[in-house]
């Protein structure tokens, strides 16, 4: 019942975040909170140089208006939109500036934590039931590695697995970020869709990667791990491992409904020749749990000859079975830890693999972070240098495959990598270089 003029006067004392919030109350408040006069004052005071205007019988100063045309010739909400665009563009500029310096070993930005802090970035998962009902889970535990971040969500209100249809992963950034204070959880936010997973028939359509006495783990690309209570067939937790390559872009530059599409690669002028094959590639590899690292290594001068191209893949041999000088031990006991509000555990022989393959000019060519597991392949190694059981770890997506062969040494209680081979899709290579392998 309060006159609109009085409400408008009250709203004129609010800051930008409060105005956006009060505009969600009802239609009247939305219209009043879009007032160009209020937003022009906010816009000009924050983003335009100020000129002092002395008022009659007052010592107050105010930002100079940009002219009557700026108010009367613009549609309601015009200056609100302009202010939001300017503010978000400024944040993106700061983030991308931090993302420019690259680590010479990984070829990736090494100021990822600083960039995420500047953007106020966080992540949420949204589970959708078959009837359309949605469950939003925000509380997450983060674990940072050289080339990835692992995010764990758990809740006491997960829906039953039988009624879940999809899971969506979003990057969340404050719409208006105040550098002087932490983001307001209830303030206006922007969602960027990173990935959507179909969970219907999860246990039949996904890859089982292990389990312990309480949970069974299932994996979906890209980088999703779902823990299912064995006794109740309900979701226990959700874990996602995100590779830093394009992480910020996908978490910030997408929309709430459409994923960010990275620009096509512009191949550098080089001696690309299908007869010659790939050459001078570099690999940075991490194998880790949530809190410990089992292997971290950089491998250079990888190449693929014409004879290594078969069945739609180009083969890059990283560790050869015949060259025992390059065989690698895994440090520690393989396992992936998990927790909920009540229980915690560790799934043995399961870990996260972070792969960063750089082309001959150091550009990230193929990158992923994903849960994998080791499985028994043979009881005897057949190698003169080692006596033990042979295990394998395999990973595959639309861009390539990774095949790892390990031997378990009972005496030292450790795995030794004796063979590591990458198979890169010829379709991926052709799209990257514009050639025809």
UniProtKB/TrEMBL annotation:
GO cellular component: SCF ubiquitin ligase complex
Pfam family, one: F-box-like
Record domain F-box: where: 1-42
Top-level taxon of the source organism: Eukaryota
PANTHER family tied to this protein: F-BOX ONLY PROTEIN 15
Protein name: FBX15 protein
Name of the coding gene: Fbxo15
């Amino acid at each position: 019942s309060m006159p609109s003029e009085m409400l408008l006067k009250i709203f004129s004392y609010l800051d930008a975040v409060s105005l956006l919030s009060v505009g969600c109350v009802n239609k009247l408040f939305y219209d009043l909170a879009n007032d160009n006069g209020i937003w022009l004052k906010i816009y000009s005071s924050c983003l335009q140089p100020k000129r002092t205007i002395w008022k009659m019988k007052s010592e107050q100063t105010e930002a100079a208006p940009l002219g009557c045309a700026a108010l009367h010739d613009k549609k309601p909400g015009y200056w609100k939109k302009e202010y939001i665009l300017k503010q978000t563009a400024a944040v993106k500029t700061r983030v991308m500036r931090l993302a420019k310096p690259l680590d010479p070993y990984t070829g990736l930005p090494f100021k990822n934590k600083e960039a995420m802090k500047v953007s106020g970035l966080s992540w949420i998962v949204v589970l959708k039931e078959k009837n359309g009902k949605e469950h939003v889970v925000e509380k997450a535990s983060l674990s940072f590695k050289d080339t990835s971040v692992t995010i764990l969500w758990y809740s006491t209100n997960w829906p039953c697995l039988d009624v879940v249809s999809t899971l969506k992963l979003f990057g969340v950034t404050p719409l208006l970020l105040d550098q002087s204070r932490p983001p307001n959880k209830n303030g206006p936010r922007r969602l960027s869709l990173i990935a959507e997973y179909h969970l219907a028939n999860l246990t039949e359509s996904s890859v089982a990667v292990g389990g312990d006495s309480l949970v069974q783990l299932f994996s979906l690309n890209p980088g999703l791990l779902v823990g299912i209570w064995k006794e109740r067939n309900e979701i226990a937790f959700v874990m996602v491992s995100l590779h830093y390559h394009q992480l910020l872009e996908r978490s910030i530059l997408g929309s709430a409904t459409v994923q960010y599409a990275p620009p096509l690669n512009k191949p550098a002028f080089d001696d690309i020749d299908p007869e010659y094959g790939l050459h001078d590639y570099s690999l940075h590899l991490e194998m880790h749990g949530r809190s410990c690292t089992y292997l971290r290594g950089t491998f250079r001068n990888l190449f693929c000859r014409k004879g290594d191209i078969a069945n739609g893949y180009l083969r890059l041999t990283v560790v050869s079975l015949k060259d025992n000088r390059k065989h690698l031990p895994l440090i520690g006991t393989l396992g992936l830890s998990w927790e909920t509000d009540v229980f915690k555990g560790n799934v043995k022989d399961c870990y996260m693999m972070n792969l960063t393959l750089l082309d001959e000019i150091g550009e990230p060519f193929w990158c992923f972070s994903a849960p994998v597991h080791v499985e028994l392949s043979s009881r005897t190694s057949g190698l003169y240098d080692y006596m033990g059981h042979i295990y394998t770890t395999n990973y595959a997506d639309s861009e390539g495959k990774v095949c790892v062969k390990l031997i378990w040494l009972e005496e030292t209680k450790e795995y030794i990598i004796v063979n590591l081979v990458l198979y890169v899709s010829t379709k991926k290579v052709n799209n990257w270089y514009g050639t025809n392998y």
